[in-house]
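worker-03 picked up job from queue 'complexes'. Input manifest follows; two sequence lines, order preserved.
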Amino acid sequence: MNYELAQPIKFKKMATAMGFSPMAKANLAEVHRIANAIGAELYVLHIGVWNEQCQKTYDGFLSDLGIAPDRIHRISREGDPKKELLNLCTENSIDLLALGALVRESMFKVFTASIARDVCRKAKTSLLLLTQSRIEHVRCERIVVNSLDHPKTPTSVKTALWLSSKIKAKELFIVDELSEQSLVKPDDDKSQLAGTRKRRQIERSEHDRIERLLNSCEVPSELAIKEQHVFGKRGYTIAHYAKAQRADLLVVNSPDTRLGIFDRIFKHDLEYILSDLPTDVLIVHSTKDTLAHGAS
Amino acid sequence: MELPKSGFKGFIANFPADFKAGFVVSLVALPISIALALASGAPALAGMISAFVGGLLVAHLGGSYVTITGPGNGLAVITLSAITALGAGDMMAGYYLALGAIVMSGVLLFFLGSVRLGILADFFPTSAVQGMLAAIGIIILAKQSHVMIGTLHPESIGTIPLLLEFARSAESLMWAPMSTLKVASVGLGSLVLLSVYSKIPIRWLHAIPAPLWVVVFSVAIQVGGTAYTGQSFFPEEFLVSIPENWMSAVRMPDFSAIGTGTFWSAAISLTFIASIESLLSIKGIDRLDPYKRRSNINKDLRALGIATVVSGMLGGLNVVTVIARSSVNVNNGAKTRSSNFVQGMLMLVFVLFLRDWLTQIPLPALAAILVYTGYKLLNPGQFRAIASIGLEQLFLFFITLFSTLVYGLIWGIVIGMIATLIVQTLITGAGWEIFRYFHRPNTLLYEEEDGKFILNVNYFANFLNYPRLKSKLDSVPANNILIADFSATAFVDHTVMEHLSGYVEAFEKKGGTLELVGLEAFAPSSTHPLGVQSKGNATKLRLKAAGRSLSLLGAGESPGLSTKQAKLSEFSVLNALEFQPWPSMHWDVKLEQFQYFNFRRIDLINNVLIDDLKRLYAMEVSSHSGEFIMKDSQQLACVVLEPKDVVMPIFVLDRERIFERLSQFAGVREIKLGHAKFDQRFFLKGPDTEAIHRFFSAACIEFLLKNPAFHIESNGRALLIFHKERVASVAEFKLMVNFAREWSQRFLNATSVHGE
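worker-03 finished. Artifact:
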């Protein structure tokens, strides 16, 4: 894979959905801050009837947060929330959609799916799920990004690096999730030793791969980079790691397939992260232009 | 210690030791094998076939080192019920049909080993397994106590009626004929011998194991009595019967019942109990092994499966790993698997050449051995031990025990598991969590630095998800450092605590350490360190904490220290520090004075160490930021240093820029002290550059460079020092306290600062 060809996604148009939930104001504050940091246009999308009450609350938010109304493009439309939200994104060529989300998906919601999660299972843009929006500014210090051996990874890592430089993050953890299946099962002392050797061997070759990937990136000088190899279930492991490391943002590849009801019941990869969000999550949606062409 | 060599060379080198151990074991195995066969309702030979086939085959194919295989206690109960059920009244026909089920269970065992299901034995709650074993003890005891006093065929069926009938059997001895009295006295005499054997202080007596003494004595009485009176001293029906030529008596197992449910339920029960008994024994013996080798349980299961198939084909019982004979093996200095081979070989020799003597053994003597074994399995002494872990464990033990007696082994353990789940739900209020997360991954293992692993556990840890935890624990070589962090776990049950304690021991033995951290904020269900550890909810804990600080007089109700707290307590005594382990809401130090805690709410403080001048406070702090669904909890081990009468500059010093997020220091520029190495390694910030330059003297810089990276915040009056933003291990805790002490002694007393 030629890592040089992969490009970061430099988000230019950022959107958020306005739902007037208890978290709406904090979300707006957070999204506005991020849009300012990365220098993106900001869209506020609203599905439903935009009545006077809405306008009043919205104006209240803007004045409280000190946001100039012309900073934001506000679009309102009636219809099915999930469908219309995605339509609006496509029509306005939004490349980053930020949504407020609850940390946990309840059992009932597994089947019906909340708007935020359902959207991210179907979206064709990059998504930012905000779990801890605050009105006051809290710096985003630690970012965790996946480094699976996958064609989409270079874009995600480069995007994470670009984002780190924009929001002035301090630490970037490159987490390499590896399958336990490739190890020798530790039945006794002998197989344990064999397992450890195999693990070291895999870690070395993975380290080389990540090194090559990083060499093809612009790494901000302020940023401390830590590489961590973790063996475990893909998706779950990185989420748990992000939680254990108290990361502020988790950056992952977008799923390869659209996720349906079966993926929710028989969880894998991204579904583990979505069902129990460890922190804010950015799902990087690679497009043909950003992927390394000639990917193996 | 050097491991015993393997291969032919090792075989020769270790043979003397292994032969001796194998010989002693065969002396124990001989009476027990015959006794267990009789308890199973099978011919006496069946047990010996199982013993020698097991010894000869598993010694070659197995994956464990010093275990002994043969007929098992738990299996006797299952085999008896299989023979009774399949034979429908005809014990002989039932025996051949049961052989079919035994062969099938061998196939199933081999299958379990092949698909690596050896981990299954760890899947059952400890108290339920103990209850099941005790029930097996009672079942054996109930039946054999009648045989022991000369009633070969008691009327009742079922364990509890049998126990009740014992009084009638005993009463009938009053007007029993002389022959029965002779038999009963041999049985009771044997039981007395077995129970006092270990207390008799005669050395030569102990050269021969107790069960063999029983056999020797009773055979001597029979042979002597027969020679004296000229007719069989004991009636024929009370003697062991072995066919003249057993080779010709071998009959192929009868597979005609293979289409019936009874056959399959027998085969599955046999497989289940055989694997549980074997795996528990292997685990127990691994702890005893002087060379600390770890058995390959899956390989052993496969070997047991093959041996069981062969044994069943020859008319023998299931081959399982047995703990009592294996511990005799270890105690007699066995080094390799050859001792099991020797034991099997000798059993074959006994069968071939000692038939005439074996048929002189009176059944009541064997029944006494079984009664004694049953009593050992029940082990009433363990009730108190279980109760000390927690009354709920005793409850689970008895629930399983009684349901096993009433509904059989399989249902017994199922009911035990369900009861355990219900009790855990009631104690922790986390039933929903258990339901939600039991099939999802919940463990994370990574190597933080070379040779230091972090194992982080989420949600909860109980017997249901223990196999996942175990596979992670197994993958870390025991000579490393492993920190198991439970601070994100809602509760840890007794089964997991028990298994973990085994791992702690194993790590210690091999020169590594396994430390359990994050359990301190838990409310243990008892004073026992292996009791259920549950966080319940924060309010409950707070109430408890408040209750504790109020009831200063209630020193008697101290709820026991965790291992970590015990170590910290030891450390505090050695260093003249005061130690307050219990969570408290009330503290002398205002943590909020530090910027770091500005946006956090403090929930609990525990494990507090205070020096005599009340200048140094080391503690673990649970705090959170955000509330309800946004809640973000954190645990931090830190030291607060309040050097009185010393003026310090306001500053932050760290390596990972944790403090950068503190708004007070946001606009402040980094300060370079002009010491290249120091400047490169640390980030130092503060408003008053001059004061900081004064404060960080050359000696102070040297001192900081020598010590690991600590994060330090000074607010002018006090210092906040911590290592990592998580719970600390005992070693890290000590390091931090020592660092703070030394620093304060060398640089933070009034003279040194003003003197500079």
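worker-03 released lock.
The first helix of chain A runs from residue 24 to 38.
Chain A has a mean pLDDT of 81.
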